[in-house]
Design a protein that fits this description.
Elements (H helix, E strand, L loop, with lengths): L2 E19 L2 E15 L4 E6 L3 H16 L8 H9 L8 H22 L3 H4 L7 E8 L2 E2 L7 H8 L4 E5 L4 H15 L4 E5 L6 H10 L5 E5 L7 H10 L3 E4 L5 H9 L5 E2 L8 H14 L3 E2 L7 H13 L14 E5 L4 H4 L13 E2 L12 H6 L5
């Protein structure tokens, strides 16, 4: 089996209303799907979490010649080769994002070729469901009741949620208190500061919200501020999480070595499933948790679900006190809701892990065409 075509497909969508985090608002969402086809007629899908023009140029300049003619079963050499060839470019985010797309698409092809879901190919046990958490309570440009998005998540059956904070201690506490009151005492609650604080600010906020039993604080300081993570960790008891803005095993190794308690690789940016598996092994070795970050299309979501289902439960030998959770963004995103023949359904507090071969999804190519940024 050889890859015969490599096709990047830029997607974009303009939101009906501004959506934001502590750093600001935006109205546009964009990503790039990757479609690989083989000489046997199989099609594999991946995602590069970068704008289409950047993905297309990177593929054409650095990867197209090597990928066309490649056996998908050689996939695990791709991430390692990307660090050395092209020299000095391998750790760049655009390179690793494209590597992610190619890697995931190759695993999709392998699974379809051998008739197995990706999570089993990665060494995972047979996993039927995961726990989804609602990623919600975004900042908005227009006024809305603070409780509204959490109430909606509860109505959908979510038993866990992550909310946006990071704009000041008093407002942070109000948002967390509101979410906890609505979710109830038994639900899992996480917060995301989106790197908007200096360490001392994050510490003040972290201490103020500690009474609300927060599972983790995500990106309390900017992703490049490694010493800031270490400072916050020394003074806040709540677990720290990061990884959505990091890529490749080397950056994650620095996070794992004492900066955070949980790493969050994004499967459309970190280097793909092969690199995510390496990151998970590094994390497990140091007893650091792994929870994938997901703010992608349905293809990136499928990759993250398959990866999450493969992560070992170490050190839990029987009942895990902290079950594997996967992020489920509750904002407007037709790139997630409309491009699959059977969309993912997180309602009821469970998310089914596809058991069909490869990523276990069937992409609606007509729907993809409607969302193309270059149409």
């Amino acid at each position: 089996m050889e890859i015969t075509t490599i096709e990047p497909i830029p997607l974009a969508h303009t939101l009906s209303a501004g959506l934001g985090d502590a750093r600001g608002f935006g109205r546009d969402r964009a990503t790039t799907l990757l479609r690989l086809e083989t000489d046997t007629g199989l099609v594999g899908w991946g995602e590069a979490f970068v704008p289409g023009s950047i993905a297309e140029a990177t593929i054409e300049e650095l990867f197209a010649e090597d990928v066309v003619g490649m056996d998908p079963f050689d996939v695990e050499s791709l991430a390692e080769r990307s660090y050395t060839d092209p020299y000095h470019f391998g750790e760049a985010v655009f390179v690793q994002s494209v590597v992610s797309a190619i890697d995931v698409a190759c695993w999709d092809l392998i699974g379809k070729e051998v008739g197995r879901p990706v999570h089993r190919l990665l060494g995972g046990r047979s996993v039927e469901t995961l726990v989804p958490y609602a990623s919600t309570m975004y900042f908005t440009e227009t006024e809305r009741p603070l409780a509204e998005p959490i109430e909606a998540a509860v109505d959908e059956g979510f038993t866990a949620a992550k909310i946006k904070i990071g704009t000041g201690v008093e407002e942070d506490e109000e948002r967390v208190r509101t979410a906890r009151d609505i979710l109830g005492p038994d639900a899992r609650l996480m917060v995301d500061m989106n790197g908007n604080y200096r360490p001392e600010q994050a510490v003040r906020s972290g201490r103020a919200i500690a009474e609300y039993d927060v599972e983790w604080i995500e990106e309390p300081v900017p992703p490049e501020n490694l010493s800031g993570y270490e400072e916050v960790k020394r003074h806040v008891e709540t677990a720290l999480a990061a990884g959505e803005a990091h890529y490749g095993r080397f950056e994650f190794k620095r996070l794992i070595d004492g900066a955070v308690d949980i790493v969050q690789p994004n499967l459309a940016r970190c280097g793909g499933l092969s690199e995510a598996r390496t990151i998970a092994k590094l994390a497990t070795t140091e007893n650091v948790g792994v929870r994938p970050h997901i703010w992608n299309s349905a293809v990136g979501l499928a990759a993250a679900v398959q990866f999450a289902a493969s992560v070992p439960a170490y050190p839990h030998s029987r009942t895990a006190p902290d079950p594997m959770m996967v992020e489920f963004d509750r904002s407007e995103n037709p790139m997630r809701t409309e491009i699959l023949e059977t969309p993912f359904d997180p309602s009821g507090g469970e998310l089914a892990v596809p058991q069909e071969p490869g990523l276990g999804i069937e992409v609606d190519e007509d729907a993809v065409a409607e969302l193309r940024a270059d149409r």
